[in-house]
Amino acid sequence: MTRFSRLIESIGQQRDKVIEYQTRMTELPALGPENGGTGEMPKALYLEGLLRELGVTDILRIDAPDPRVPDGVRPNVVARIPGASPRRLWILGHMDVVPPGELSYWKTDPWKVVVDGDKIRGRGVEDNQQAIVCGLLIAQELKAQGITPDLSLGLIFVSDEETSSRYGIHYILKTHADLFGPDDFVVVPDYGVADGSSIEISEKGQLWMRVEVLGHQCHASRPQEGRNSLVAAADMILHVRDLESIYAQVDPLFQPPCCTFVPTRHEENVPNINSLPGKDVFYIDCRILPGISHDDVLASAREIMEAVAERHGVTVDITTVTNAPASPATPPDSEVVLRLSAGIREIYGIEPHCAGSGGGTVAVGFRDMGIPAAVWASVVPTYHLANEYSLISRTIGDAQVLARMLFD
């Protein structure tokens, strides 16, 4: 039996470990301060200790200073296992998760794993603990079986992916870029389709706008004395769709193939019912096709919102929360795509294809540096939804696909 065959067979027997790792991580909510949490440190300490238990000795913690969290830092865990070649396959996962949202939508406690046949349910089990578990299974079985792969393996478990990546992969690339060799390549298991056939090689740009509407507060029984910021904001929200006709370009690599402009969050205004509000704040999530200027989109948004504001006698101010233009695409014939495609064919018996995504994965920083990065997983997907779940069989299968990439 070949080294690869031994590794694949042993990974295939790790259902109990998938459940164990998922259960432990889910019990450690890793919410960033923007999402009302205290950061990722407990999960990072668990993963760091687990890697040592598995026999991994080359472990590095890269802590990004952040005074908003109790520990004062946002942790990032890097683990390396040598292969016959110094060339390295990096597998990235993010430790932070999103809040569970409205708890009444959940069938069970979002922070307690529930196993139902092949499904494992809980907040974060798919986004992005499935990726972390894949990396752990490969590391575990390389060490347990005493196998030296052809390529070296690197695992990176980052913080802050769900908000800005400022304290995660961006900090790592800024302060420890020398970790990555010129011939290394990267897989980020943070996007995919249920059958695992889609390899993401390009992402839309990400632009988050904060829209502040200022009117004049008064008693709700005398609305003529005020300027209702909520009514004006509601009108502006309805006009966000005007951006779709201005930026109507289409790229079939992506689904949906167009730019998207979606009003999402609204901050609380007045706490009482009988006050007409004088200040409202809402947010717009924009995903911009490559080649479209974010500055142009911002200018168009300001023009649209200012026209609405004038009609309502209010003022409006638009600022950016996140502004990350699209990165260069990974070539479809790059080695990372070819190796990944070969693994998908061998393990899942299907023909993969290249695609684009809405953006926001940690692959962007690598592409900006010229390091080939592919984003891939076989997921339902249920990320950010109530009753988020992952398939145990697919976690194991994905780990086998990624393990295949380590062998020539």
Automatic annotation (TrEMBL):
One of its GO terms (molecular function) is hydrolase activity. Keywords: Hydrolase, Metal-binding. It holds the Pfam family Peptidase_M20. Residues 201-311 form the Peptidase M20 dimerisation domain. Signal peptide: none annotated. The keyword Metal-binding applies. NCBIfam families: PRK13983.1. PANTHER family: ACETYLORNITHINE DEACETYLASE, ARGE_DAPE-RELATED DEACYLASE. This is ArgE/DapE family peptidase. It comes from Bilophila wadsworthia (strain 3_1_6).
